[in-house]
Each structure stands twice: as structure tokens, then as C-alpha cells.
Amino acid sequence: MKSNVMTHLSKALSLTMACALTLGLAACEQEQNFGKFGKGIDSDFGTSGQQQAAEQLPTDPRQEKLVLAANADDDAALAARVKAAISSNAGLRSVTVDVNAVKGVVTLYGTADTPVMSREAAMIALNVDGVRSVKNEMVIVKGS
Predict the structure, then answer these.
(1) What is the pLDDT of residues 37-47, one digit of tens each?
(2) Is residue 22 part of a domain?
């Protein structure tokens, strides 16, 4: 009797996991909007980003942790490159900026003397290799 119950529970659990995986994969197919600063990466390379990501998904949970750690390193490196690009611009020396990056989406935080300086920082960030879009959260403070 116990083995019969265990068999049914095992089948029910397998079916539940299959349904959850199917729903999760279906959610990956949805388009994402990265705002007006987004670059047309998919049109440049002729394939969708979701397709490439799905091909690179690890099947082993240990590999998934390694991929997440590598992504965090990539995000930190991208943020550092963006901050360096903004800091190296002589016209933006008075701009105070912190940069956060997640999967190519860069967010700028900090202060600028004028709206023009804030926009210039965003445009510099957008032109850094690996940046897909920029969210400019900078605040305008005269004399910052």
C-alpha cells in the first residue's frame, strides 16, 4: 500500500514540476521593453536575446550558481567601465555619479549641475560597449 501511494505521489510531483517548468519557459518568451535608450541588439545580430539566453541556460544547479556569479562579475565590470567613461570626460568633472548595471541595463545615480550634463552622462554611458539601455536617475543640483 505504501509503495503504491509513493508511486502516485512521485508521479504527481513529476507532473507538477513539468508544469512549473513549462510556465517558467513560457514567461521567458515575453518581450522586454528597455526604454527609449535601448539599443537594437536583436536586429544587429539577427537573433533574439531570449533565444540566445535559452541556449545558454545551465541544466545543473551548480552551474546555475556559477552563471549567476559570472553575471554579477560582468555587471560590476560594466558599471566600472561606465563610471570610468563618464569620469574621463573633461566636461563632466563636476558630475557625481554612481553606476549600477544589471544584464546590460545601466542606472545612473548622483548629481549634475545642469540637465545638459545629466543627459551627456547618459549618452556617454549608452555608448559603452555592453550597455543595452540607460536609466538616468541623476538629480540636478546647481553647484554640485
Answers:
(1) 444 444 444 44
(2) no
